[in-house]
Amino acid sequence: DRHVTREIDFEIDYAYLLMGDLDTSYDLVIGEAKSFCDLTEDSVKKMAEIADRFDRKPYLAFSTLKDFYSDAEKSRLRTLVERGYKVIALTREELDPYELFDRFKKAPHKYATRLEEFSENTLYLNVLQ
């Protein structure tokens, strides 16, 4: 049979859809959430495989309750960015943002209003440093 299907086990923890105001444009965010565990190579790979199923690549959001990502996690996220994926890297500092504007003060976009700017800020603060 030329229509071979294979079963693949995928899971996302959350999704966010942002629709355009006056057109059919949209941005999709799919997310992987961890408490205090590290992002594994497998979980990062599976998120990329899910993104590859879309005609228009979604943002890949990774969330942790830790204050910072480990060097191994940063490496995994940098690899995704280098491969052209749009990544949002959230730590406890962004998930519980009492002082988000202060946190973004030295980031590329102090007042991030678009997902692209938010992505750039979180990568700057949590992955590229």
Helix fraction bin: 25-40%
| Secondary structure tally, helices | 5
Strand content: 15-25%
Task: Provide the succession of SSEs.
Answer: EEHEHEHHH
Distance between the termini: 50 Å
- What is the tally of beta strands? 4
Q: Describe the global form.
A: globular
Q: From the helix content, strand content and strand pairing, which structural class follows? A: alpha/beta
**Overall mean confidence score, pLDDT:** 90
C-alpha-based Rg, rounded: 16 Å
Task: Identify the quaternary structure here.
Answer: single chain
Q: Major sheet: order of its strands?
A: 1-2-3-4
Largest sheet: 4 strands, mixed
Poorly predicted regions are none
How does the SSE layout of this entry go?
Elements: E1 14-19, E2 26-34, H1 41-51, E3 59-64, H2 71-82, E4 86-90, H3 92-95, H4 100-103, H5 115-126
Parallel strand pairs: 2-3, 3-4
Antiparallel strand pairs: 1-2
Concise overview:
The chain is an alpha/beta fold and 129 residues long.
Descriptive labels:
alpha/beta, four-stranded mixed β-sheet, 129 residues
Describe this structure in words.
The chain is α/β, with parallel strands linked by helices and 129 residues long. The chain has five helices and four strands. The longest helix has 12 residues, at 71-82. It is globular, with a radius of gyration of 16 Å.
